[in-house]
Predict the structure.
Amino acid sequence: MARPPLVGVLALQGDFAAHEAILAALGATASEVRTPADLAGVDALVIPGGESTTMTLGVEREGLAGPIRALAAEKPVLGTCAGLIMLDQKHLGVLDVVAERNAFGRQVRSFEADLDVHGVNGPVRAVFIRAPWVASYGPDVEVLAEVDGHPVAVRQGRVLAVAFHPELTGDTRIHRLLLDA
Amino acid sequence: MRDEATFRVKAGLAEMLKGGVIMDVVTPEQAKIAEAAGACAVMALERVPADIRRDGGVARMSDPAMIEGIKEAVTIPVMAKARIGHFAEAQVLQALEVDYIDESEVLTPADEVNHVDKWAFEVPFVCGATNLGEALRRIGEGAAMIRSKGEAGTGDIVEAVRHMRMITGQIRRLAALDDTELAAAAKEHQAPLDLVRQVAEAGRLPVVLFCAGGIATPADAALMMQLGAEGVFVGSGIFKSEDPERRAAAVVEATTHYADPARVAAASRGLGTAMTSLESSKLGEGQQLAGRGW
């Protein structure tokens, strides 16, 4: 049997532990990434939910931007919420999208809803917390789900990003897309 | 169908704050400094705990104009404090659309018997606790995040350590009990049985656990994270120190790299003097804030 995939989870700040639990449930090995050295040997990368400002400063401090871009050129990447923001053109520039932060409003506007996601059978219980949406995107980006006409799940090649938090509901299907990418 | 203000949505924001540092700020300028240093949220208040201690008198919710100014200054979540049991202050904070309300012993309690019924609110609450029973009573009232109380405004970590060790130790002991022993344990902790069952099964609180009260240095943050805190509140420790910008960034770095002593050492270098501190064991009767609430 082949060894289980080794998935790096960016662990500068945010709900990285919740992602690790989902990955473990899928039989993958999760490893926390805080420095460029932690990226050695990973087969895929998750950028978790959290505060994108804090993560951006952490990525700068650790010199992680170049190594993450290099990894994303070759391997699957999943970003959730702040992770979607981190992947956009104003941050790491991995995805050809521009995210709008806190697009749904402050915490009192946070919500959950059943969402149809292209490529996933049956609705996904999607938890949106001070969530972004995709304000604009390039021709190579496929929109997988929308709320109020705004893209909240996108895919470009092997890079996936969602504005909600599949890691908070125990649903493994979005992470399965990453492992199959 | 969109469901707002579910417990998952309330507790979920605390999940997003994990591994981060929440800093007390009293002006929009301080809020910007905190954000630029990597804070994952700010706590908007009129006076930091060290000044509340010094000035004495009744400490209340902050002026809405100040809270609004801070909300406009930053894009990270903004929390604000209401007095224990003062549900009208909490209603005001909800009307101001702060992202989290801290029902806080740092302010003068408004009700010596009842805490706020936090289920009645859409905005999530964080509450302080000194032990597991207290944490579970707050969660039973609807709190979506727990922090240690520590002893705010002292720069002395000893009470935060006591509270964190108490909570995590009590969780470990609960997890070792037989199912039939849980009802007696719930009685002993004066906590709801269903929450006691959940904790015994999961081996952790059902919500995120941060530390607060007395954190003054990067090593303090690393200590609390190694003791089981999932993130850190820093009150007076940042803006009462000699070089707030550097100290704030250093505490953020140490919170991320808490398990790597070389990184904590690097972050601790040359920060100037820490806040003026008070030994909490030398505080007089009535000066200890952690005893407020039950």
